[in-house]
């Protein structure tokens, strides 16, 4: 598995991609600083809704992960070097798992650092709250990574479809339709934040901590298993 | 004693929507070099992808070493595949690429195997350069080293000579012959008749997704030599020329088309090339243009299909 992991790290570590991710992940920190330094500083609840839920968990984290994960298989399918991997005498999960780990390895530091400093600024140096947000952000990265790695393998239009999913499902429907939240990575992350620090996001989640953990495990495993099955059954270009 | 085929393709078809790429093809492949020959778009690559398990069949079965090749990763320890796509990991050095291929294929004594594979393709001097700096032919050879690094019993190569210069072609030909002499089975595809003629003992001719002919190359070549050629001759006196040309031994039939060109049907174009100018000179006819009408590979394959 080490070969696929190292190969994927090198493939995904392009300067252009990393630059975009740096800019994206810096945005919540900058916005938080600007909000708190203005004359009309927002309430904690407004900060949680607008910056942590809407921007970090619902937009920046999925977009950063999408930029990396869609390319994990997508680029190799496109340039047809994926046959180098699929023609190897190794189980298909030995290909899918290191690809997913490499995506998390690259995307997580950007999102985690952004989450920590954004919450540190927003919660005025509250360490417990900042750690809760950071851990939740890491879980969110893992879940989005699993979903978008599968999407990159499934479709050559992964970036477009992923953006639609982020805007429509995570951004729009999950905010208005309560049933959709059961299938929303953003809401798993928010529930997890609340579970790790009950003072935070007190009124923002109607999902129990246990359900969020269970659903997160199901989503992560479900997309990973789907990727492995797809690798076994797809026609490799 | 019977030799089980290395590859068995049994009534295999593959279609994409309403397009039939491969239609009810059946053949066995034994050790030695087998050439999969056919014009571009004939279905060679689709057939090779099914033989390597990269693509599923719509109908029929493919077995390699007696086992289904599809969704059977352990079988790839015994198979080396080089696809026609020439994309490489440009950021990797050649040696890194071959080493990675060896790691993925579980090669023991990896560094020795990498040294051996790179030496086989004659790229020792370039092994520490990024593959992005390689010429097309060098990339193909380093990809071949990656295909050979685990010492496979079966090699499946799709258009392997693409991009190779004449010196590299000679080297490649010798290498494949050496590998086959060591008992390996090699299947290579090409749309170039002469390329396959140099290399393959046995030929599978694929046209329009069907197996048009199979067997020893010499038999197929003999059939080709029987093929009549159409030659178009434009002159200042087509009817006089037609009357004279029909008397030549090398000519089977002649007619004049509506544009005034003489269409000559000949099984011996070499003699026709010599006799036609002499005849025109002696009859004081001015030849303006002489051109073969069916010299394309497709027409050659089409002729064989009709036989």
Q: Mean of the pLDDT scores of chain B? A: 87
Q: Sheet with the most strands of chain B? A: 6 strands, mixed
Question: SSE order of chain B in H/E notation?
Answer: EEEHEEEHHHEHEHEEHEHEEHEH
Taking pLDDT < 50 over at least 5 consecutive residues as the criterion, the unreliable ranges of chain A are none
Instruction: Assign the CATH topology of the largest domain in chain B.
Output: Rossmann fold
Folded structure, characterized:
Chain A is mainly α. In chain A, 79% of the residues lie in helices and 0% in strands. Chain A is built from 9 helices and no strands. Chain A has helices at residues 2-12, 15-37, 44-79, 83-86, 93-122, 127-154, 158-176, 185-196, 209-233. Chain A is globular and about 60 Å long. The model of chain A has no long low-confidence stretch (mean pLDDT 89). By secondary structure, chain B is of the alpha/beta class. Chain B has 2 domains: 7-224, P-loop containing nucleotide triphosphate hydrolases (Rossmann fold); 228-306, 2-Layer Sandwich (Alpha-Beta Plaits), CATH 3.30.70. Chain B contains 10 helices and 14 strands. Chain B has helices at residues 44-52, 94-104, 110-120, 136-148, 166-181, 193-199, 217-225, 238-245, 269-282, 297-306, and strands at residues 7-16, 19-29, 32-37, 59-64, 67-68, 79-82, 154-158, 185-190, 202-207, 210-216, 229-235, 251-256, 262-266, 287-292. In chain B, the strands form 3 sheets. A 6-stranded mixed β-sheet of chain B has the order 6-7-8-3-9-10, with helices on both faces. A 4-stranded antiparallel β-sheet of chain B has the order 2-1-4-5, covered by helices on one side. In chain B, a hairpin with a 2-residue loop joins strand 4 and strand 5. In chain B, helix 2 (94-104) crosses helix 3 (110-120), helix 2 (94-104) packs parallel to helix 4 (136-148) and helix 3 packs across helix 4 (136-148). Chain B is elongated. The interface between A and B is medium-sized, with 23 and 27 residues.
